[in-house]
Design goal:
The protein is mostly helical. It is about 55% helix and about 0% strand. It contains 15 helices and no strands. Mean pLDDT is about 90; it is low at about 360-383.
Amino acid sequence: MTAIDPTAHLTAEQIEELGRELDAIRDEVIAGRGEKDAAYVRKVIAAQRTLELASRGVLLFSAFRPAWLLGTAGLSVAKIIDNMEIGHNVLHGQWDWMRDPKIHSTTWEWDHVSPAEQWKHSHNELHHAYTNVIGKDNDLGYGIMRVDEDQEWHPVHLGQPLWNLVNACFFEYGIAAYDLELGKNLRKGRRGDPEFRARARAVGRKIRKQVLKDYVIHPLLSGPSFPATLAATFTANVVRNVWSHSVIMCGHFPEGVQVFERRSVEGETRGQWYLRQMMGSANIGGSRAMHFMTGNLSHQIEHHLFPDLPSNRYAEVAVKVRALFEKYGLEYVTGPLPKQVFSAWRKVFRLSLPNRKPEARRPGRARVAAPGLRHGASIAPTR
């Protein structure tokens, strides 16, 4: 069975015209950035810090059940906001144009065990450049999952639902290991490599700092509430990890999202890069509050097209981007959060099993995109 290519109807000229139209959208937003946007991010940072401080204050009395519930809920939300709407987006350089050294991608450090510098390399420079390219984008399955029917199945893949669940609960540690390319470096015997050792030490320092803050100092300040505060902080970290893992899974793993072969990005043009982002991402529909709590990664398609635009502008950009999908006859993959989470997890389970018909591809999916993309090295997003 031949896979259906969802971009096969586009000519090379149309793909480049699509790229020009997307560039125009990006240029319009950049020209319109101003004080309103700067006020937004400063307000969010101030609110997050207030919420975290207040929640940690309540948890000083966490031996009392109501205080534990209130403080844990508040700390969970504060950690999600720090990770999603602030840290992720600041480290993308979305607010660098403000020239504020306190809110800049070169100085920001987040509440996460992965050092900012290492995360920026693996995420900004690799993942966003090679979105959903098998063997190039390590975010695609994080090296622990089979993500496409054409990948050879092994019995070890039967465990990938479990591996994915564990990864979700301890996602920040999974990301740190992924940023280190821990598995690959250990397999290749690079333990003694000076560069790898330096990066591993940096991760170790960051883990110690996070553990000291969350699991030693704050619980000790609680005095007799030490065990309850320890449990509350652990719970908040797990909630944050599962939430961020779910949002990211929904952005790249639901049914309808395309994956690509290495050779498909050779000689890739700007228009072809844009098209791959469109086909390799999916959105989550929902309320403004939901969009905010996802760090606006519910607009994953728009984020992958324009990773350095302020996150508060993705909603307005999405209207124009969706119109381009319709104009060029492309599927805009989106759905409510429960549907997208279910779709992503269903794929995890399905690909943990051997193909029902190894010689056949599932219809409606393409690992190699349109003719313009087949001969189309990847162009990194404009910063």
